[in-house]
Amino acid sequence: MAASGRQGASAVERPPCWSSSRRNLARGIASLDEFHKEAVRAFGALLGTVSAQSAETFRTAAITVGGVDLEAIGLKRPTATWTYLVHENP
Q1: Contact between residue 12 and residue 2 where contact means Cβ atoms under 8 Å apart
Q2: How far apart are CA 63 and CA 89, in angstroms?
Q3: Which candidate, 46, 42, 78, 71, places its Cα nearest to that of 57?
Q4: What is the pTM of this model?
Q5: Around Cβ 89, how many Cβ atoms within 10 Å?
């Protein structure tokens, strides 16, 4: 549906989440708080999983004078690195 409530070629389309956000606000539920609850549920076990998998990699990887053989355990080195700017104030 268009932003003005009417269909039209020049109207701006609202994202699908718009109506659920409006319903949440009408019921006194803050969408950002709901997002945070879901994010905590989704990522709550992430650090434990990463820690366990990292420890398993160190236990099983063959480390030689030339370094670790990642291909032997099915891992590859990244082909690129990414840097993310968190804020502009160093």
Answers
A1: yes
A2: 40
A3: 71
A4: 0.44
A5: 4
- Structural domain including 32 reads 1-90
Query: Domain count of the chain?
Result: 1
What is the rounded distance in angstroms from the CA atom of residue 27 to the CA atom of residue 21? Answer: 10
| Whether the Cβ atoms of residue 42 and residue 50 lie closer than 8 Å to each other | no
Helix residue ranges per DSSP H, the chain: 17-26, 31-43, 46-60
Q: What are phi and psi of 40, to 5 degrees?
A: -65, -40
Task: Label residue 30 by pLDDT band (50, 70, 90).
Answer: confident
Residues in the chain: 90
